[in-house]
Amino acid sequence: MRGIRESEKPADYRQYRLTRAQRFAFALAGCAAVFGAGWFVYGHPLAGVLLSPAGLLAPRAAAGVLLKRRRERLRKEFKDMLQALSALLAAGRSVENAFQALESELGLMMAHGRSDLLREIRAIAARQRNGLPLEEALRDFAERAGMEEVDRLAEALAVCRKTGGDLVDVVRRTSSWIGEKMEVELEVAVVTAQKRFEARMMMAVPFAFVGLLQWIAPDYMAYLRQGPGLVVLTGCLLLLAACGLWIRRIMRILP
Q: Could you tell me which of 217, 201, 214 has the C-alpha nearest to residue 43?
């Protein structure tokens, strides 16, 4: 709707939209990086000019990286929220009152005002005060966040209300289970972090090797930059790009 400002719309955490300035900056940086790499490998600026349009893919790649970081931060904050929620329920608060108190509890834990989860908790509390059931507000957040854990919490609330079970105990148990599941996923992410770093180093080694050859054996590199050598270099670059995509797919263990 035209009357709703962009900042007032509910955030969709399944995609990341770059601003025009960000798209321009990433595209410019990508083209410059590809230009430099092409000039460095082929030894001629014309090669960099011909390859530089590939840098226009940089905004899309950057958006993917920023989206992943945002979702990881959201998951970590949600884990902290579950711990605070369990503590409030253990203190004898009802589920609704606990969610109303979460805003102040998380405000102390997340001092920065740009926390996505803190903004969502404020929205959920406001919807509660307007009469919207808590589970519906959580389901809306779960759909936009694409997080199974939020949906499980909302489902537990809905089932409890229908069956008349102990709402506080079910939410406490569900929060504990979700927290343990996310703890395991974070441990896996820490273990794979070293492998991700090793993969980046492997992608940088070929360029370092080319630079070393250029320094210690410029005559050898001269043969690779003319005639059949150009075909060999191009084939190596294509294989390196395919290897990078393959490694990226292998390292996608966590959502």
A: 214
